[in-house]
Amino acid sequence: MYNFLEFRATRPADSCEMVTTRDVCTKKEQLFNNYGTLNNVEALTKYGFINPECQIDTVCLRREIFYTQTEYYTPDAERTKFWSDQGSAFLHALGNHATRPLGKEWESITDLETIPENGREFVIWSLTIGKDGHVRCGLKVWLLLVDLLPGIWKEFMSFSIYGKVETMLPYLAIFDYPRELMQIEHRFLTGWLNLLHPAVEKRNSRYSMQDSTDYVKRRAKLLPDVDVPPI
Predict the structure, then answer these.
(1) Is residue 107 in a domain?
(2) Of 66, 70, 60, 68, the residue nearest 79 (C-alpha)
(3) Which of 161, 155, 175 shows the shortest CA–CA distance to 100?
């Protein structure tokens, strides 16, 4: 058996299909059923519950740091196309070569999640903040790419995928366990934070409006004198 084993047979319309997520031992082995790897949106819409300890809930910053011109970020067509088309393959190669914390994070992510190959789905998956505000590896790497100086970016794009990995590994050193950073690493980290912080602030300001009565009135197109119950 390889990867997925599907049991298919004639069955009543109200029955379900069981799929194994790993090879089944030839010996008598107990099989366990579970809900699968779901974030809380999927769990709520499919099964009617959420898990407060869910490890794969994310907030995506694609509008704040990918598609849209802002006061802190100017979209670069070549960089956004690279990330959309080749970002998944690049992250796979980078995660497999990195021995620092990003490599361990990548290993845990690939154990839990199916990573989109490219396109909009990959952009949405990759530019995310996870549980307790953790900046996930895709967003870490994307912000480093955005901050590359034009000359370094041009050189980066001339390399093979493995040359790109070798170029990026020194930048990832800023995420090593607490230590004193070298001067050039301070420059990397400062540029990275100067992109991340305003993106998070913009995201927060956009969606925190939804907690206000005024926002509800505007969205519902209610007249100012219509009383809206407090949220």
Answers:
(1) yes
(2) 66
(3) 175
